[in-house]
Amino acid sequence: MSSFDVVALGEPMIEFNQTRAGEPNYLQGFGGDTSNMIIAAARQGARTAYLTRLGDDEFGRMFLALWRSEGVDTGGVATDGAAHTAVYFVTHNAAGHVFSYLRAGSAASRMRPEDLPLEMIRSARFRVISARRYFDLKK
Question: In total, how many domains does the chain have?
């Protein structure tokens, strides 16, 4: 029997979504496809875990609190004191949504294959990986 039904690897991002076009007001939320997906799976009763790196900052702590409150195992989440948690802004104009990402140098972008908890990954029934770099998980 697997330890987890679903394990996801990816980059979570704090979202700031403009509430009204042209105004400097934003609503804070949580983004990142794999983070959203693993929360949805946990809400459906799956045994889930998330794998990533977060900055040692308030946004990173907010993500940890979110995942724990949703029943997502955070044993595969590392903290990087030398990097930030990724952020993106959504503004609105006549053409639609405009996304501005602050991801360069983020904690998750600094993950290396040797940082991955391979046994946790192998223990999962299903794996969801969304990364700019591809890792060889067979090692």
Answer: 1
**Given CA atoms 115, 62, 7, 133 in this order, what sign does their dihedral have?**
negative
Query: The domain that contains 17 carries what CATH number?
Result: 3.40.1190.20
Helix (H/G/I), strand (E/B), else coil: 40: helix
What residues make up the domain containing 9? 4-129
pTM of the model: 0.89
Q: What pairs with residue 13 in β-bridges?
A: 31, 86
Angle between helices 33-43 and 58-69 (to 10 degrees): 30
What amino acid is encoded at 35 in this protein? S
Strand, helix or coil at 99?
A: strand
Whether 137 is in a domain gets the answer no
Regions of the chain short of the pLDDT cut 50:
133-139
Residue 139 lies in a domain: no
